[in-house]
């Protein structure tokens, strides 16, 4: 099997210890702090939603604000941990000569990142319109593409199967309704 150029691919990582390439100086630190900043921004968005949420006075513990608060706290925690690690790693940048045997320097595959992030954004915007089954299938297809899947039809069939089964499990098994969107006439 030929090694893949995609650092997220299994063939690129099996048997290798990975070390991410990092820039040095202020630009390297700024690049390293992007993900912690995204996590902190999302946690702040959740916190804003928690504080502006209208909770009925008769809501019992744990209530609708409890689990989002746990998620926001966890996101802040991980943002701090990643931020500290990013700053420490950016300040001490190893040279290529410092590589150990069996170690491979990799960078971020921005095309894969764009497929995954774009799939999540598309899912968030299209869920109400297309419904769970179609939007989740598209989400699966986009993430599979981001991780290197080239067979679109295969990803579509698997995505539709998983999204349909999860729709049935939530709707019929748990009694929780998911958005039906375009397929609403059939369900």
Name the poorly predicted regions. none
Summed over residues and divided by their number, the pLDDT gives a mean of: 78
Sheet with the most strands, sense and barrel status: 2 strands, parallel
Tell me the span between the first and last alpha carbons: 45 Å
Helix and strand string, N-terminal first? HEHHHEHHH
Q: Give the number of helices.
A: 7
**Helical residue percent?**
55-70%
Structural class determined from secondary elements: mainly alpha
Principal-axes geometry comes out as flat
Total number of strands: 2
Q: What is the percentage of strand-forming residues?
A: under 5%
Largest beta sheet: what is the strand line-up?
1-2
Please tell me how large the radius of gyration is: 21 Å
Total domain count:
2
Give structural notes.
This protein is mainly alpha-helical and 187 residues long. The chain has 2 domains: 23-92; 110-185, no CATH class. It is built from 7 helices and 2 strands, in the order αβαααβααα. A two-stranded parallel sheet has the order 1-2. Helix 6 (132-146) packs across helix 7. The longest helix is centred in the middle third of the chain and has 26 residues, at 66-91. The radius of gyration is 21 Å and the shape is flat. The model has no long low-confidence stretch (mean pLDDT 78).
């Amino acid at each position: 099997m030929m090694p893949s150029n995609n650092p997220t691919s299994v063939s690129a990582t099996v048997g290798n210890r990975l070390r991410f390439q990092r820039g040095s100086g202020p630009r390297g630190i700024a690049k390293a702090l992007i993900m912690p900043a995204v996590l902190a921004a999302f946690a702040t968005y959740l916190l804003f939603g928690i504080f502006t949420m209208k909770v009925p006075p008769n809501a019992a513990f744990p209530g609708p604000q409890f689990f989002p608060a746990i998620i926001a706290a966890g996101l802040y925690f991980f943002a701090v941990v990643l931020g500290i690690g990013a700053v420490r790693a950016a300040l001490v940048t190893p040279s290529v000569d410092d590589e150990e045997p069996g170690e491979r320097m990799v960078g971020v595959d921005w095309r894969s990142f764009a497929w995954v992030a774009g799939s999540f954004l598309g899912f968030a915007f299209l869920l109400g319109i297309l419904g769970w089954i179609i939007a989740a299938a598209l989400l699966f297809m986009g993430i599979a593409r981001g991780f290197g899947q080239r067979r679109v039809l295969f990803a579509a069939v698997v995505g539709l199967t998983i999204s349909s089964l999860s729709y049935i499990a939530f709707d019929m098994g748990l009694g929780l309704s998911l958005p039906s969107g375009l397929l609403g006439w059939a369900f």
